[in-house]
Amino acid sequence: MASTLRVLGIDPGLTRCGVGVVDVGRDRSATLVHVGVVRSDHELPIERRLAMIAAGIREVLDTHRPDVVAVERVFAQQNRNTVMGTAQASGIALLLAGEYGLPAATHTPSEVKAAVTGYGSADKRQVQTMVARVLRLDALPQPADAADALAIALCHAWRGGASGTATTTAALTPAQRAWADAERLARR
Amino acid sequence: MASTLRVLGIDPGLTRCGVGVVDVGRDRSATLVHVGVVRSDHELPIERRLAMIAAGIREVLDTHRPDVVAVERVFAQQNRNTVMGTAQASGIALLLAGEYGLPAATHTPSEVKAAVTGYGSADKRQVQTMVARVLRLDALPQPADAADALAIALCHAWRGGASGTATTTAALTPAQRAWADAERLARR
């Protein structure tokens, strides 16, 4: 393994699919490589929408050649109007990982929040703030799907992907510390 | 359009994905072209399972070159243990249709049952019996996923795909008549 792990994080969606690539070092430092959103027009038939999502993800895979793909886990309990499209998009993200010979992992929204902010019930703004801080970005990543994709990638690396260790509560400590720093700064 | 419509029906699943190809004439007569099941080992990681499902569907597309792909619609209300895998497999079936430049359609289980047997609440055995009868098979198609895939393909053709007309209740009449025939034979 190289000294850094390049992770492609994917926030699956049919209308907007967030994609974020980060390099994470063994010391857990992280650098932004790419962030974006793959869109599909809701007026197109589903088969063409899914093909657009796949083409967009393939472009990121070809250009940035990640070591691993991390996808946010979809639950059947979510909003029923969109859950099937989200599940189908997540299936395509995982399929492409398999076809590129890359390992894939899924993480729940609360795992992502806990890994990035130290709080499993953090709100979106807290997650975005931490992502921007960790990656030393001048502004919060926009739109939210793009920020979520970066958070998923960071979560994957910090939960053991970069260090190669299994997930432990202790693995959250640097994120918790960083979040406390961010909170302190925000209070100034 | 050729005088027959070749339909690939797909009963999406992660462990067993039914695939059935039929040629359906303008007179609604139908001929079996191919039937099978694409399997993936549940011990493999999800990204490799999905890649196996995709490879199996691609093989059918390459070999039999259907005009259209019909996929059974998945609902979030179904069994939560399997619904996500089923939704992901359905997304891959639809994606491949899009990537092969083919139109795709989804049909609900009750639409399939109604189209094939005349009864929206028909049981699996009734559907299998009708599929075997319509396609002049000596035995019921096995396993059930394979029979379901053929039923989805027949449903798609009969609901207007072959005749090019919109779905109407009148479109069910030949299936209802065939089912009545099958029932009468079964009573002998």
From TrEMBL, chains A, B:
Cofactor: Mg(2+)
Coiled-coil region list: none
Alphabetical GO biological process terms: DNA recombination; DNA repair
KW Ribonucleoprotein (keyword) present: no
Chain sites annotated for binding Mg(2+) 2: 72
Gene Ontology cellular-component terms listed: cytoplasm; Holliday junction resolvase complex
Source taxon at top rank: Bacteria
Subcellular location per the Swiss-Prot or TrEMBL entry: Cytoplasm
InterPro entries the record matches: RNaseH-like_sf (IPR012337), RNaseH_sf (IPR036397), X-over_junc_endoDNase_Mg_BS (IPR020563), X-over_junc_endoDNase_RuvC (IPR002176)
GO molecular function: crossover junction DNA endonuclease activity; DNA binding; magnesium ion binding
CDD domains listed in its UniProt record: RuvC (cd16962)
Catalytic activity from the UniProt record: Endonucleolytic cleavage at a junction such as a reciprocal single-stranded crossover between two homologous DNA duplexes (Holliday junction)
Quaternary structure and partners: Homodimer which binds Holliday junction (HJ) DNA. The HJ becomes 2-fold symmetrical on binding to RuvC with unstacked arms; it has a different conformation from HJ DNA in complex with RuvA. In the full resolvosome a probable DNA-RuvA(4)-RuvB(12)-RuvC(2) complex forms which resolves the HJ.
Function: The RuvA-RuvB-RuvC complex processes Holliday junction (HJ) DNA during genetic recombination and DNA repair. Endonuclease that resolves HJ intermediates. Cleaves cruciform DNA by making single-stranded nicks across the HJ at symmetrical positions within the homologous arms, yielding a 5'-phosphate and a 3'-hydroxyl group; requires a central core of homology in the junction. The consensus cleavage sequence is 5'-(A/T)TT(C/G)-3'. Cleavage occurs on the 3'-side of the TT dinucleotide at the point of strand exchange.
HAMAP family recorded: RuvC
NCBIfam families the UniProt entry points to: PRK00039.2-1 (NF000711), ruvC (TIGR00228)
PANTHER family for the chain: CROSSOVER JUNCTION ENDODEOXYRIBONUCLEASE RUVC
Name of this chain's protein: Crossover junction endodeoxyribonuclease RuvC
High-level lineage: Bacteria, Bacillati, Actinomycetota, Actinomycetes, Micrococcales
